[in-house]
């Protein structure tokens, strides 16, 4: 007796056509994007992740496992990972992977994997307290208004209640609400959710005839979604990040700080030109400790990668550095990685590294560095 209706071979074939026959998931991308795919073991019902990264060590009681083959030749391909996470019971057969086990739909345990993504964030980037932007995307929620009463006694029977409870446990929208309610008010602007609402009964998961209707419905609802503008603002602001040019220097009353604002996106020349045009046409500027700094002070004939030099003063290296973007965004938005105290930024850049930096930039011992060395010497005594 078959426990599935469809073969997942078409899924693997589709990925193979795009990525090639032997495209393993565990391959770093040029953009350094970290990818994790959720799944669940078929026998133990243990949540797990297929990833294209390792990250730091994890506790044994974390609640999920990272699946990694002992030999690179046995690693999971992109198509196999897609088949595993898509193996919804009844629709697709659980996917067996040689040397690794048998896996099924990740939504059985993590239908909204945002919490897992944030847990992984701490292992991949342990110095990051929170993301610049977390976007949770749903697959649709029904505007449910059914009533349970004497006219529908079946809905109150044991098996019906068990089934409803099971389905509710996989409700991604409820998982989002539970998660968002646990986020401190001061950090909620970083977390967003996009989902569509079904006014009519939700189409079956294998109703391919409904795809065009779903596509149009999604485009229409997203265009008027109240979170659209805040999400765009956050995405634009998180493109930019700040780095110190060198260690701040002490002039007797303040620390003199010099640095640059860059963009993390690897845009081609046309993309850089469009970005500069948008920043110029909207008179965009960075606000740094109350001082506005134009994003594009002057236009060059060529379009090199974005770089904006900035200077400011701090009374202490424990002072917070906060830079907001205005103009291209509809409201002030903090750029990536900030606010953060200057000491933490310096440490993250490795400017205190005693054996130099990986980019071989020569370090000059400034007055502030000598002061910090004296402080460390006193503390070590």
Automatic annotation (TrEMBL):
It comes from the Eukaryota. One of its GO terms (molecular function) is calcium-independent phospholipase A2 activity. GO terms for cellular component: membrane. One of its GO terms (biological process) is lipid catabolic process. Keywords: Hydrolase, Lipid degradation, Lipid metabolism. The keyword Hydrolase applies. The keyword Mitochondrion does not apply. InterPro entries: Acyl_Trfase/lysoPLipase (IPR016035). Transmembrane segments: none annotated. This is PNPLA domain-containing protein. It comes from Friedmanniomyces endolithicus. The lineage of its organism: Eukaryota, Fungi, Dikarya, Ascomycota, Pezizomycotina.
């Amino acid at each position: 007796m078959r426990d599935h209706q469809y073969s997942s071979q078409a899924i693997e074939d589709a990925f193979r056509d795009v990525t090639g026959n032997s495209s393993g998931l565990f391959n770093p991308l040029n953009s350094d994007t970290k990818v994790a795919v959720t799944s669940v073991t078929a026998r133990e019902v243990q949540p797990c992740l297929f990833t294209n990264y390792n990250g730091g060590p994890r506790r044994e009681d974390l609640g999920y496992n990272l699946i990694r083959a002992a030999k690179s030749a046995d690693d999971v391909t992109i198509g196999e990972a897609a088949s595993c996470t898509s193996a919804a019971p009844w629709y697709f057969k659980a996917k067996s992977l040689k040397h690794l086990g048998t896996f099924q739909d990740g939504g059985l345990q993590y239908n909204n994997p945002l919490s897992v993504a944030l847990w992984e964030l701490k292992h991949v980037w342990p110095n990051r307290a929170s993301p610049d932007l977390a976007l949770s995307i749903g697959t649709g929620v029904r505007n449910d208004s059914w009533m349970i009463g004497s006219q529908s006694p079946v809905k109150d029977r044991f098996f019906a209640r068990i089934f409803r409870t099971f389905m509710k446990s996989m409700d991604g929208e409820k998982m989002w609400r539970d998660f968002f309610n646990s986020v401190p008010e001061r950090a909620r602007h970083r977390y967003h959710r996009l989902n569509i609402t079904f006014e009519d009964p939700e189409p079956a998961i294998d109703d391919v005839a409904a795809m065009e209707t779903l596509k149009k419905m999604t485009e229409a609802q997203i265009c008027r979604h109240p979170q659209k503008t805040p999400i765009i603002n956050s995405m634009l602001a998180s493109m930019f990040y700040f780095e110190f040019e060198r260690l701040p220097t002490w002039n007797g009353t303040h620390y003199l700080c010099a640095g640059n604002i860059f963009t993390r996106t690897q845009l081609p020349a046309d993309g850089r030109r469009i970005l500069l045009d948008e920043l110029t046409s909207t008179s965009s500027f960075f606000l740094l400790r109350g001082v506005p700094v134009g994003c594009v002070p002057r236009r060059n004939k060529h379009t090199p990668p974005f770089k904006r030099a900035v200077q400011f003063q701090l009374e202490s290296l424990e002072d917070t550095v906060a830079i907001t973007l205005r103009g291209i965004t509809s409201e002030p938005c903090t750029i990536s990685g900030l606010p953060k105290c200057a000491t933490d930024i310096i440490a993250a850049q490795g400017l205190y590294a005693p054996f130099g930096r990986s980019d071989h930039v020569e370090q000059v011992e400034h007055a502030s560095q000598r002061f910090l060395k004296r402080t460390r010497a006193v503390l070590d005594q």
